[in-house]
Amino acid sequence: MATLPSQRIIRQSEELGELVRQLRNEQGLLQMDLAGLAGTGNRFIVDLERDKPTLQLQKVLDVLDLMGLEVIVKRKGANRHGE
Fold this sequence. Notes:
- The protein is mainly alpha-helical.
- It is built from 4 helices and no strands.
- The longest helix has 14 residues, at 13-26.
């Protein structure tokens, strides 16, 4: 079983769904297990993993937090100071 890198760039919702599915599987959780832990319906987890474009952002962030992930927003490439 492959482990996740400590950082991963996500540019499409499909990549995020794949990441959630991979991490859930690595943690030995079923979709309904994750839904119960996150306080969402099973359908929400299914939709998240299948790239449904209209999911509620706060619920997505809550699931990511529960799975030990965080979202960091930064500018692409070097910042304005060249760092």
